[in-house]
Fold:
Amino acid sequence: MSFPLYAPAEEHDMLRETVRALADEKIAPHAAAADENEEFSWDVYKALVAADLHAVHVPEQYEGAGADALATVIVIEEVARACASSSLIPAVNKLGTVPLLLSASEELKSRYLAPVARGEAMFSYALSEPEAGSDAAAMKTKAVADGDSYILNGTKMWITNAGVSEYYTVMAVTDPSAGARGISAFVVEKSDEGVSFGPKERKLGIKGSPTRQVILDNVRIPATRMIGAPGTGFKTALATLDHTRITIAAQALGIAQGALDYAIGYVKERKQFGRPIADFQGLQFMVADMAMKLEAARQLTYHAAAKSERAMHGEPQKDLTFLSSAAKCAASDAAMEITTDAVQLLGGYGYTKDFPVERMMRDAKITQIYEGTNQIQRMVMARQLLK
Structure:
């Protein structure tokens, strides 16, 4: 009896080669400078747009490449192997637009997805607030109906690519008496009157991607910019994360792969006691463990991506919430361990900015925190298992 090989398709492998070649040539050379200068790299953005790799997930009917969820994971993974900050371009474009793909009217999808697909705009996601992090339902940002408009007031926090993105999916309370069921989702444009941004956060890692507050001061937007029905915003937000936690897992895989590849190259060259340090069993065991953890996390992530793809096409996937949390948690924990070990394998050099692994270690940390901390992921997994 024959069955399809449990592996990515040939097209996926070809895509990986394409992205890796682009990342090695156009992205990796800028990674250290982007980190050092804390500047968003428009050159990298343009290179991704030119190769149609900036938002591969957008369906063909909205002028996108129509890539499946696994292809999107591979793109993010390969960009992150070169530069974690740059991988947030395809990842956050997906995060910002999945609410529209899941819940928006056709008119809203056509209007906002096509410019993203064409590379004319990026799309960020605004859920968290100063007092509403893990407890996102505690948000205070309000949207008050006024004729055929809504007026938004509040502050969103930790918004990735804030200020460089043109569009924002914003969650706001439309019915304060209804708790999580009183939250609605909207599209806000950077150019809307009353939209401003806080100063750039001074971060440990992913410094080439700005993180800022999005401040909404009496921002009036047409009611047609609501994503889905009133009160469905929080449900949409949670459904979105089932798909996009997998992209954070992909980012973690890429960071870890970059660190492992660099460390392997180093230990084969570096000599001590008259021979390459790769000859020493203690170091061989470290390298073996790093690769094993990475491959386990990768298989889990690809499995979750396959489930995500089916769910996006309307096939209910009972275990998607569990698998996406498991992939994000396993991959980010693995990335933190692998990058820390890579620094160790380089010894004193690993601790310096002359070598990329210290940057990778700093970049890996955020993958354990954003899009739901790994403590929250464990709660999510346990609830799925015990319900």
